[in-house]
C-alpha cells in the first residue's frame, strides 16, 4: 500500500517517466514539456520504504520498536481522534499510548458520541480538561490555568488531558460539535516551545503535534519523567521516519534513543 503522505519529491512527479521505456532515464526528456526529467528512482527503493514493521507501523528501514518505553504519570491522556487521523502513519497520538498505557483513544463521530467516553466523563475519579486555545470569547468563562490541575490532584482526582487529535480544522470541529465537551474546563497550553515535528508541514512553528502537546502538558503539571520519556520517544519516531523517507538507514542512535535504550538496561 502506498503511503498517502509520501512527499512530492519521492513520487515520480512526472507521470510520463513511469510509462516510458527509455533505457537512459537520467538523460531522458519529458516528451510533453521537452524538459529534462529527474533520474528515475529504483522501484525497489520505493518498495522498501513502504514495507512497514508490524510492531510500530514505521518503515522497516528504521523501525521504532527497540526504543519503545513506558512511564508512570499522575495525569492521564484521553485522545479524541478524528477518523481520518487514525489512518495516517505520521499520527503521533499513538506514541502517547505506547508510553502511557492508561491512555484512552476514542474515535470521533459527530452524530454518535462514544458511550465509554461519556461514562468516563461522568466518573468522579477523574478531573477532565479539554486542551484547546483560549482565543475565542464565547467560552472564556470555562478557561482555566495549570493551577487547576494541581487543585484536582489535591482533591485526589486524576487529572485528564483530553486532546483533540486531528488537523487544526478537525480539532476545532470536534470542539464545536461535541456538546458533551461543553461543560468541561478548557485548558490552553501556554508554551514558547516550537515544534520539532518534521513529517508534516506545520502552519506555524508554534503549532505542536499531538505528542509534543502531551509531553509539554505532562512537564508543566509535574510529570517530568513521563514527559521526558514521551519527548525522547517522539524524537526517535520523528528522526527514524524522516530518515526512512530519505531512504537513509540511521547509522547510530541519537541521544534521545540512547536514553530510551538505557531505560531498558536499568
Ligand atoms: Zn517496529
Automatic annotation (TrEMBL):
PANTHER family per the UniProt record, alphabetical: TRNA-URIDINE AMINOCARBOXYPROPYLTRANSFERASE (PTHR21392:SF1), TRNA-URIDINE AMINOCARBOXYPROPYLTRANSFERASE 2 (PTHR21392)
Keyword set, alphabetical order: S-adenosyl-L-methionine, Transferase, tRNA processing
InterPro entries: DTW, DTWD2/TAPT
Protein name: tRNA-uridine aminocarboxypropyltransferase
Residue span of region Disordered: 1-41
Top-level taxon in the UniProt lineage: Bacteria
Pfam families linked to this entry: DTW (PF03942)
EC numbers for this chain: 2.5.1.25
Domain DTW: 49-246
Gene source species: Billgrantia sulfidoxydans
